[in-house]
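Case study B.
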Amino acid sequence: MINNMDLSLVDWSRAQFALTAIYHWIFVPLTLGLSFIVAIMESIYVKTGNEEWKRITKFWMTLFGINFALGVATGIILEFEFGTNWSSYSWFVGDIFGAPLAIEGILAFFIESTFVAVMFFGWNKVSKKFHLASTWLVGIGANLSALWILVANSWMEHPVGMVFNPDTARNEMVNFWQVLFNPVAVDKFTHTVTSGFLLASIFVLGISAWYLLKKREEFLARKSMLIASIFGLAATLLVAFTGDNSARTLAKVQPIKFAAMEAHYYGKANADLTAFGILKKSDKSIGDQKIMDFAFRVKIPGFLSVITNGEKSTFVPGIIDLVSGTDDSTNIDPVVNKIQKAKVANEILRYYTRVRLLNDKETMRDLRKVYFDNPKFITDTLNYIGYAYLNKPEDSIPNVPITFYAFHIMVVLGFFFIALCAVALLLVLRGTIARHRWFLIIALFSIPLAYIASEAGWVLAEVGRQPWIIQDLMPVSRAVTQVSTGSVIATFIIFAVLFTGLLAAEVSIMVKQIKTGPKH
Amino acid sequence: MTTMISYAFLQHYWWIIISVLAGLLVFLMFVQGGQSLIFSLPKTDLQKTLIVNALGRKWEFTFTTLVTFGGAFFASFPLFYATSFGGAYWVWIAILLSFIVQAIAYEYRSKPGNVFGQKTYDIFLFINGALGPFLIGTAVGTFFTGSNFSLNYMFSVTWGTAWHGLEAVLDARNVALGLAVLMLTRCNGLLYLINTIDDDDLAARSQSKLKFNGLAFLVFFLFFAITLLFSDGLTFKDGRPGVEDFKYLHNFLQMPLVLLIFLLGVAGVLAGLFVTIFKGSRKGIWYSGAGTVLTTIALFLLAGFNNTAFYPSYSEFVSSLTIYNSSSSKFTLTAMTYVSFAIPFVLAYIWYFWRAMNSKKVNKEDLEGEGHVY
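Model:
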């Protein structure tokens, strides 16, 4: 079945999902952060009773609403696309995703949608305090929504809390708490939502800077900048801290992604971290893949080893070690072996299924005892069952340049944002911000940079995991729905045209609202 | 609890939850029904704006219910999600498209700089209003009339037609259910507008429109219901599928409670129409709404209970889906069951805020104040 798999079908299906995810992620981080920023603003209004603060709150709330609508629209497509384009995957993970998604739908989405209606329409219908509570609940609901889908995504990076059931040919959850407190999930959730807070802060800073440049709405701009720079500075420090944690976890659970984001091919102790670099193809290769070399590199000696566990002496395996294996104390099983073992496991599963359809209970029990319930078989073989679908060992390597650049762009911009928020806060507190036009211009042009950094994070997460849709268990080629490539191309084009049109409308409306300014 | 409650009980319990969500979704699609009338119902621009704003305060609920319905189906019966979404690809994509354009239409239609002009967004609302309920109804029709697909040893779906689900419109029963759902949502939309908007002329126009839409609903619905009673269905006995004549009639007779819910539901819808058309009541939506929820629940229970294949494959019987062979594991259903105990609480706060927000009717002044206007 897999051997005659249409490669372009996988590619188009991935392109479609990437398109939807990238568009969705244009709108979500702003929702995550701006919801709390308006809640803080409204809290000040309720506390002080100052009508100016109400105006400020309502202005940002209008922009929130314009952005929110498209986030909702693109979100539903992602949910449906699990089924329409990745149906084998849907069955394989359905039992794990079940609980998180049920909680997300029942608890988080309804909080968000109920209170967003109160937030927009309830100004004169419910009391001030009630309205304020609703605004906070919109933020809480939005961020809770993010929690559960990120738990599901983290399971794809690092599958835990499950056993493989040969009767259903899928993984079944046996420990909910392991799924929820998956180390990847904890880091991913905190890193992702705080990056949303940061993006929203930069959005508010940038637009406020524009007003100051135009010498309009000074009060609104200064006050908004004060809130945004404090919120943004706190967020950016959290982003850095959780990012560092993520890297440490990644080194353990997805060593090849970790190696790819650093273009680290040859494993060693006292390994250097690349602060920034430009890649070029070298003349060496692994299998049919060229090894990348640095055309230019700024490095921090020994630091790659340090970030994995604090010790310079730590051995950090490179891509080549992870593919070809090592036979010293690091003891890495070569991918060739994993492919062999996984193919055997797959044959056993196929045989088990035949026996099951014949209802031969005795043989089923025996096979379970020897294989599927045998802890050694599970850790050695079943946990790598996805390798059966790889043709060559080097297929287990993600796209190194994309992973590398996505990571470094994200990190460099992250450090820039720390400085941006800190300087903004300083200038606002001194009361001199309006005089520093250079800074206002930088702040304005930082808005697109925040989006680039945010998207780069997801590119790193998703491209770095390739060829897996679920690490070691299922490659994308095995997960894809068998529809015609033509159908997927058609839906890709429809979505691309539709999203682009809607995005154009969104940006145009947003710009118009900003130019018009808040209502007086 | 894990040991006390059987797997079969949990599978039934989650099918009931899916049915209730479906019921709420069909009721809440009064928003779509109302949208399908935005060109024909209002006489003036003001009336149109009133309609859009009255509906626009509720669209999020419908949308969220649809998302939750999809999520809960994925969570509790993932093999359905994998099989139907992946197999009947074009039906679900079409449903999806009709809902994407709705999400932005309200927010953007009256905003300056919206690029495509108000008319375009109103057309989006109309498309979503007309196509959404029709397609969902038609898709649910295949729960009874079946499809052609097969599943391999890894449970991967192969669909039997190149139309990937669009072939459902070739069966008159599916189309009848689709049209019945559309007409029902239009009736509920009219009843909601009568209840919510403070405009006597609009109420009168809505009332007269209700007559035709109510009649059309009855015609399509009766056609579907009667043909269903004569249809055969797939029964699983000891895990083996077989065709049973008059399956759905038998299901009604063997599950009298489902029959009772069905009859109460239909009576509720009729009562809602009756009090509005003949008594001039403005509260018809409550009878009709409750009736819509009950009727939908009954149809879902009819499709899934009593060892019936709720997603039958007529090209390979053994690939057909039942609530037993398509569900999540016992552990996951148990975990989700704990979560489901929060549902009454969620419904309670939604109800509370719905009442708070609807305590005053929507009128002209709402559109001129400082509030959020679509």
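Chain B has one domain: 7-368. The remaining cases will be described in the next quarterly update.
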